[in-house]
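G.,

No rush on this.
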Amino acid sequence: MPEEETFCLLVRLMNHYHLRDMFVQDMPGLLLHLYQFERLLEDLEPALYCHLHRRGVHPQLYATQWFLTLFAYRFPLQLVLRVHDLVLSEGLEAAVLKFGIVLMQKSTEKLLAMNDMAALTTFLKEKLFDVYIDDAPTANSLLESGFFGSSGGIDKEVYRADALVQDACAVKITAETLTTYKAEWELKVKTEKEREAEIETFRSANASLALKVRSLEERTEKSDAEHVQMASELVRTKVENEEIHDRNDSLEGQVAELRNLVERQPEEVEQRLKAEMDRIMARNLEVQNENRHLEEQMADMEKALVETKMGYAEVRRQLANQCIHRLTLLQIQAEHETLKQKWNDLRKALGP
């Protein structure tokens, strides 16, 4: 197929067959088709729907790629081409839903026999189309398989493609049913959006209330701190009052004692003053006598000092005279020695 025709086909699929709705933001088309498929499965195969629902196997786990790739991601090529033919013939929505429902119906017994979620998911993704394997292929089947399925060499089995198409066309899915499901989905989406908006409103209100609660808690903590501080100050004030009261009682006792003491004080002071005066007078006499005795001793000591100084001066005079006498004798001896030396020198000079 030329590039121009291929591009035109892509544009047709995206716009006319609404394939684009499955790839835009939030994938509204994909979510709608998955909901329609789930509702069809619930209405047409309720036992299988309940079985899968109880085990948490929802269409989002296995049917997402059916709608995004039109069964081309894992299905045999000879079946995929028939699916695409029906898509182009009847439309994307009805064709994919019919093929999905008929594959589920044909594998109902095998699926009901499985209880493990992983096994169910693997079977739905990889082995769902095995029910259409042709165990006794005819010449036409082999020819069809060779023409459509051997291009990549990946289809080792021959499939009953005609039977798949016939079974899919036999599934009765009316436009009214799909419209009803679509209306349910739109109502559900609207309800969810309103619920999300309400939840967001609640979150905003909750955040605002949380801030208010936090503010109130801070104010409460501050009030509690102030209350504790005031209680501490009150207790401290009470303790100080008790101490002041005790001190007041003690001071009152001391004042009473001082009052009694002051009342008895004049007589005691007079007696003490008289005794002290007598003691001072006696002591004054003693001091006067001691001063007189000391004055006499000082006079004697001054007399002795004068005599000592006079004796000292006499001694110094005598010592000075002795020193002069000795110096005179030394000078005479020196002169004598000098004269004696001169005499000896003269004798030597005059000869024998």
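When you get to it, here's the other one too:
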Amino acid sequence: MTTAAAVFGCTGAVGSQILATLLATDAVSSVKTISRRVPKDQSPKLQALEEGDTSKWGVMISSLSPKPSVVYNAVGTTRAAAGGIQNQWKIDHDLCIENAKAAKEAGVETYVFISSGGTRGLLSGYVPYSKMKVGVEDAIKALDFEHAIILKPGMILGREKSKSPFFENIVSNLNKLGQGVQDKIGQDQTIIGRAAVAAARIAEEGKAPSKYWVLEQADIVKIGRDEWKK
């Protein structure tokens, strides 16, 4: 099975790993990226489209050729980088929902969204970040894709530019107490990226456990590391 894929958020920690994994996977014949800056990766099967106006991203999906059967959305920012919670909401919530709607309208069969673990806890309804992620997840579920996949990783490890150096360093060293200890709290960005690609492949082979498939941290480790194969 050969697949055409599109990636949003391709220059971020997880998005860059999704892109690298797709480019290294023989079953993937074409990869398109749409982003504000082009990724570093190069490949004959990669077409990187640079568009600074994010409001145009969704419309661009329908013009891609070949039409992607899978769209990966790893878009995300922080409150500080966005310049406040309202601006972060526009990116992490509004833009992501617009992207999913556009993918559905373009006939995309499989939609993969990188969300975050712990966003549906007891107090999550009071946390803006959790509300953003839950809102996007619920919107994707309502769109009724042939396959919808939500990854909910813990702390993302292995970033080139750490967002929380102190805490990421602590979690990175938890494997000294046992890999299972670290696995419950954080996962390396490479493992998350591989899990996203593997999950899409499993879904396209008709082996996903459900049409709307949520991968928690243990699932990400299982298919992105323990059972990973190109």
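DSSP finds nine helices and nine strands in the chain. The chain has a mean pLDDT of 92.

Enjoy the weekend,
O.
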